[in-house]
């Protein structure tokens, strides 16, 4: 359901990480007014595209649809270190950077690669994780698509606004269908409307655990990926500094590895 998308709208002060958004009951996110409460709890708003297990994804837990994943765990730690509440806004991946620039979200954690184009528009934290790219195909095409050459002219389902779009464009004559959500790409692949996709390997592996008939191709895209980083509005050095401190702490406590393995287990559960 879209409930995360229609959460309390907080008017965030430009450049300020801790906009006063009124208080929230920590276990209740249904507020539709914007204030009137007594306490001064601060809220920071995370933008993410929760279609990306094990990074961020929807899961029914205790009968409730929740957004979980290791990016979300990192976001919780950032908020906790700042003494702030965390509000999660789920949206299409392609909307994330403009939501950040307009101040509707304070930070973005969404398995985002800090590539040169994005660095022009927003600022990034240090990298917190790294993963390779993978080509996903139907299992029965495994022999057919074993090299990048064999993927020339093939139809690809690709997440709009992702770096995978750039990678797909380097494949000669690739026919690219842009889709907002990875779940839709998986469905289109399964039903034969597209023949291949490119996504991060951990994401491909997470989907493949629950979807029959798909496989990771032996072909590996050539992309020198720089890992993942957390985006903030351009110039918000205060928030980047906070975030980097939390990342340093999590790294020294080996927490990121732990979050990744817990999220992978959760993603694999039916
Ligand atoms: N790493 C890729 C990029 O930055 C894909 C990220 C997609 N993230 C997501 N939550 N769907 O473009």
From TrEMBL:
Which UniProt keywords are listed?
Answer: Signal
KW Lyase (keyword) present: no
Q: Which Pfam families match?
A: SBP_bac_3
Where does it localize? Cell envelope
Report domain Solute-binding protein family 3/N-terminal positions.
43-263
Signal sequence: where?
A: 1-19
Member of which family?
Belongs to the bacterial solute-binding protein 3 family.
Protein name (database record): Transporter substrate-binding domain-containing protein
Origin species, per record, is Paenibacillus dokdonensis
Its taxonomic path starts at: Bacteria, Bacillati, Bacillota, Bacilli, Bacillales
């Amino acid at each position: 359901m879209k409930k995360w998308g229609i959460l309390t709208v907080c008017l965030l002060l430009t450049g300020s990480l801790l906009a006063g958004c009124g208080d929230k009951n920590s276990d209740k996110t249904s507020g539709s007014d914007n204030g009137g409460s007594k306490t001064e709890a601060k809220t920071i708003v995370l933008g993410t595209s929760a279609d990306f297990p094990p990074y961020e994804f929807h899961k029914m837990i205790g009968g409730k649809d929740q957004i979980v994943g290791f990016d979300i765990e990192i976001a919780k730690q950032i908020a906790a270190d700042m003494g702030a509440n965390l509000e999660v806004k789920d949206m299409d991946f392609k909307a994330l950077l403009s939501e950040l620039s307009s101040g509707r979200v304070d930070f973005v954690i969404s398995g985002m690669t800090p590539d040169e184009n994005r660095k022009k528009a927003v600022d990034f934290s240090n990298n917190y994780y790294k993963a390779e790219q993978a080509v996903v195909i139907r299992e029965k095409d495994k022999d057919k698509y074993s090299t990048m050459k064999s993927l020339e002219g093939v139809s690809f389902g690709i997440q709009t606004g992702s770096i995978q779009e750039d990678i797909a464009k380097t494949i000669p004559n690739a026919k690219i269908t842009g889709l907002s959500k990875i779940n839709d790409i998986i469905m289109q692949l399964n039903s034969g409307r597209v023949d291949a996709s490119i996504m991060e390997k951990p994401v491909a592996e997470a989907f493949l655990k629950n979807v029959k008939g798909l496989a990771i191709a032996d072909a590996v895209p050539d992309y020198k990926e720089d890992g993942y980083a957390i985006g903030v509005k351009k110039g918000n050095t205060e928030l980047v500094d906070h975030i980097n401190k939390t990342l340093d702490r999590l790294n020294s406590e080996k927490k990121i590895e732990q979050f990744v393995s817990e999220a992978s287990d959760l993603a694999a559960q039916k």
